[in-house]
Amino acid sequence: MIDVVVLFFLLGLFARLAKSDLRLPEAVYEILSIYLLLAIGLKGGIELSKHGLVDLLPQVLAIMALGFAIPILLFPALRLLRFSQPDSASLAAHYGSVSVVTFAVATALLDRQGVAYESHAALWVAVMEAPALIAGILLARIGRLKDVRWGELGHEVLFGKSVLLLSGGLAIGAIAGVEGSKPIAAVFIDPFRGVLALFLLELGLVAGARLREIGSFGPRLVLIGLLFPLILACFGAAVGLALGLSVGGITLLATLAGSASYIAAPTAMRMAVPEANAALSISASLGISFPFNVIVGIPLYLALARWLGGDAA
Amino acid sequence: MTLPKHPRTLLVIITEAALEKSLARDVRRLGAQGYTVYDVRGAGHSGTREGSWEADRSIEMKVICEAAIADQIAEHVLEHYGAHFGLTMFFAEVNVLRPSKY
C-alpha cells in the first residue's frame, strides 16, 4: 500500500492540477522546512552520540566522493543530449545534490515496513550536498575558474539553510544524546510524520505547478527526469553494498543518489551559474524526479536493496 | 504654508530574490544611502513566480537617490544581471522632505 505521507503529496498535486485556490502561506512552508531539516539532523545526531564519529569517517568520505562523482558522470550524458554547458552543469549539480524530503519519505517507508537502517543516515544527507554543488560549478566553469567567487560560494554552500540546519541538528543531537534530547522529543521527534505529511502537501502544490511547464522543455527532460533517478539509484546501491551497509542503508543511499535537490542546488546554481536556465533544472528535479522517486522509485530501491542482500542489520 | 520639498529619483528594481544580497551591496557601493525591499510575486517574460518556495521568490527593491546615482545603479544592474535574471526596472520622480537622507 502507498505510504500515507505520499497520499498528502498526491492531494497537493491534484489540487494544483485541478486549479484549486489552495495555497499554504509562505511562512508555513518556511517553518515546515526548518522543522524537517532540524528534526532529521537531531534524530541522526542522537544516534551519532552512541557511535564514535571517527569510525564513520571512511564511510562519510566515500559518500562525499559519490556526491562529487555523480555530476561528473552525468555531465557528458547531458552534453550528448544537446543541453548547453551551463544547463548541463546545473542539471548535473541538481542530481548530484540530494533531496531531504525524498530521504524522509524513504525512512518513513522503512520504518513502516520494519526494515532497519543505519541510524546515523542523516549524516550522509548533510555531507552529500556540498561536493555535488562544487562539482557542478567546476563543470560550468571549465577553463574559466578565475571568474568564480569561491569565498561567496563557499559561504552559500556551507552556511546555506539546509546544510546549516542539518549539521546543526546533528551536532545538537550528538551533544545532548538520548537523555538530553528527551525534553524536546515531544516537538522534534514524535510529530515528525505529521509535519512531513503537511510539507508534502505543499510540495505537491509546487510540483504540480512545475509539471504544467514541462511540456515546454520537450521529451528529453522527461527522459532524464525518469532515467537519472533509476541509474543513479543503482550506482548509490552499489556504493552502499561496497560499504557493507544494511538493506535499509542501501535503500537510503540509493534514494539519496537518485534524488535531486530543490533547495540548496537552485540557490547555489543561480548565483554561481546565472546563465543556466533555472526553470529547466527545477522542472526536472521537482516536477519529474521528485514525484517519481516518492511514488515509484523508493519502493523500487527497497526491492533492489533486498535483492542485493546487504548486511542483515 | 507649503512644506519645502526636494526632487529625487525613485528607482524600483523587481527581480529574483537570489539577487537581494548582491543588489543591497551594489546600491550602497554606488552611492545610495538606503533601500527598502519587499517580497512580491508576479509573472512576466521569465514565467510565473509565485514566491511559495526558495527558488521561486521575487523581491522589489526601492531606492531613492540623486538622479545620477539612480542611473549608475540601473546601468550596473542591467549590465550584470539583465541577461540572465528576471528583471524589471523603472524610475519615478519623487519629492522628499529631508534631502540629506537621499
Name some characteristics of this structure:
heterodimer, A: 313 residues, mainly alpha, 0% strand, globular, B: 102 residues, alpha+beta, 4-stranded antiparallel sheet, 39% strand, elongated
Strand order of the largest sheet of chain B: 2-5-1-6
Gross morphology of chain B is elongated
Instruction: Tally the helices of chain A.
Output: 13
> What is the CA–CA distance across the termini of chain B?
24 Å
Uncertain segments of chain B of ≥5 residues (pLDDT<50)? none
What proportion strand of chain B? 35-45%
Topology:
The complex is a heterodimer of chains A (313) and B (102).
Chain A: H1 4-17, H2 26-48, H3 57-80, H4 85-96, H5 100-113, H6 122-140, H7 150-159, H8 161-188, H9 192-211, H10 219-242, H11 247-258, H12 264-272, H13 278-308
Chain B: E1 6-16, H1 20-29, E2 36-40, E3 42-44, E4 47-49, E5 58-65, H2 67-81, E6 87-96
Provide an overview of this structure.
The complex is a heterodimer of chains A (313) and B (102). Chain A is mainly alpha-helical and 313 residues long. Chain A is 77% helix and 0% strand. Chain A has 13 helices and no strands. Chain A has helices at residues 4-17, 26-48, 57-80, 85-96, 100-113, 122-140, 150-159, 161-188, 192-211, 219-242, 247-258, 264-272, 278-308. Chain A is globular and about 55 Å long. The model of chain A has no long low-confidence stretch (mean pLDDT 90). In chain B, the strands form 2 sheets. Chain B has a 4-stranded antiparallel beta sheet with strand order 2-5-1-6, covered by helices on one side. Chain B has a two-stranded antiparallel ribbon with strand order 3-4. The two termini of chain B are 24 Å apart. The mean pLDDT of chain B is 93. The A-B interface holds A 23-24, 26, 29, 202, 205-206, 209, 213, 262-263, 266-267, 270-271, 274-275, 278-279, 282 and B 16, 18, 22, 39, 47-48, 50-56, 81, 83-85.
